[in-house]
Specification:
- By secondary structure, the chain is mainly alpha-helical.
- The chain is 50% helix and 3% strand.
- It has one domain.
- This is Lipoprotein.
- It comes from Streptomyces laurentii.
């Protein structure tokens, strides 16, 4: 099983539309495009209105790619779990949007403004067309390794906090966690090193790193030409965190179980005033997915958006249970509340998408429930087995997702 959700791509689609570039209707609707692979690369963009100079740039890049580059990129996304199944038969009837409150969050507003200062929207357009915004994700996923020298946060500001939490998470949950690694995702590092970028492009498009050096140079040239991209340090490149596992995967690739922590998502939480606890909440949530992997908790009778929502709300609850528990992070009430707010911020209104993770209210309430389980336990020193907590969650789930529009 692979879980790799690329938030950056959907943000770029939204931002590119805001910058005035021409995209088809299905690409412009970001509520139904939560992942990089929801679009076929070239077909997801309208190239009919390019100027001759712009077309020349596209042609120049395509000349460095294999003829079947689109198929290769699609295959790579599927191979590493970057594809979301559409569940077209059931998705349109799974959830009624009219039953739920769903507001735009401060984090969404922040994310949608990350490219506001772009001087040349065509640069963003081309990078999105050719998968450039996904390069840091592939770099961290395929080549990242846990190391004492790793840093978390743009300036390493979360390194000590997250490293300590990761050790405690491994002690807390009743799973085999020794092999789970925590890996940082830094955008600027990837685009500052042509050899490193070429190695990543070889994963995305095939051939050897040497074959992709010219393409790497073109990507770096374009990124450096647009100040708003900050040489790849713009949070949009790394606005993500995700868990990855090959447990029970029929075609494992030898990548270790891992949690990728992107700088961008932590910058976003800092921007809205939640940097004190949000990174810990994100890590606790993603570790919750590893509990789900090993305990086979992704399996349920639900399908489409309802299935994804269940697993994400469960991870919210598991993460907050850990953060609140006296043998976890033992956060005080104010910090637990901020944790719940951080989960609220990543709620979405993508009711018909297979990537729907729950509304802001549902995510807040799931987190609140996880905290209450820890706080209300008669034996504060006892850690519930994961399967016991799961059974409690399954009973609570209908209440967590019931309509709240009134």
């Amino acid at each position: 099983m692979k879980k790799t959700l690329s938030v950056a791509a959907s943000l770029v689609i939204a931002a590119t539309c805001g910058l005035g570039m021409s995209l088809p209707a299905q690409a412009a609707d970001t509520t139904d495009a939560p992942t990089a692979a929801s679009q076929s690369p070239r077909s997801g963009f309208d190239l009919s209105n390019l100027t001759p100079e712009q077309q020349a740039v596209v042609d120049r890049i395509e000349s460095k790619l294999p003829a079947d580059w689109q198929a290769r990129l699609d295959a790579t996304r599927a191979k590493y779990g970057l594809s979301d199944s559409t569940w077209t038969e059931v998705r349109d009837s799974a959830i009624n949007p009219g039953d739920y409150q769903c507001k735009t969050t401060s984090l969404s507003t922040y994310a949608n403004g990350l490219l506001d200062g772009v001087q040349d929207p065509f640069v963003v357009f081309v990078l999105s067309l050719f998968g450039g915004f996904d390069a840091p994700t592939y770099d961290a996923l395929v080549f990242g390794k846990e190391s004492a020298g790793n840093t978390f946060g743009v300036n390493g500001e979360y390194t000590k906090k997250l490293t300590s939490e990761m050790k405690n998470l491994k002690r807390f949950w009743d799973i085999d966690s020794a092999r789970i690694q925590m890996v940082p995702m830094h955008g600027a590092d990837v685009f500052a090193d042509r050899d490193r970028l070429a190695r990543t492009l070889a994963v995305m498009y095939g051939d050897t790193p040497a074959d992709n050096l010219d393409l790497a140079d073109l990507f770096i040239e374009m990124i450096d030409s647009e100040p708003a991209l900050q040489g790849g340090a713009n949070p949009i490149f790394t606005f993500n965190a995700f868990a990855y596992s090959e447990v029970d995967d029929p075609a494992p690739m030898g990548i270790s179980d891992r949690i990728i922590m992107g700088d961008g998502i932590m910058q976003g939480m800092n921007a809205i005033g939640l940097d004190d606890v949000a990174p810990r909440g994100i890590l606790g949530h993603e570790f919750g997915h590893h509990v789900q992997y090993q305990k086979n908790l992704f399996e349920s009778d639900l399908r489409g958006p309802e299935a994804t929502r269940r697993t994400e709300l469960m991870a919210d609850a598991f993460g907050t249970y850990y953060l609140t528990h006296s043998r976890g992070e033992a956060l005080n009430a104010a910090r637990v509340l901020n944790t719940q707010k951080s989960f609220y911020q990543v709620g979405d209104c993508s009711f018909t998408s297979s990537g729907h993770h729950g509304t802001p209210n549902q995510r807040f309430n799931s987190s609140n429930w996880g905290a209450s389980v820890a706080n209300d336990a008669p034996n504060q020193g006892h850690i519930l087995p994961a399967m016991t907590l799961d059974k409690m969650f399954e009973v609570k789930l209908p209440d967590l997702v019931k309509p709240d529009v009134n």
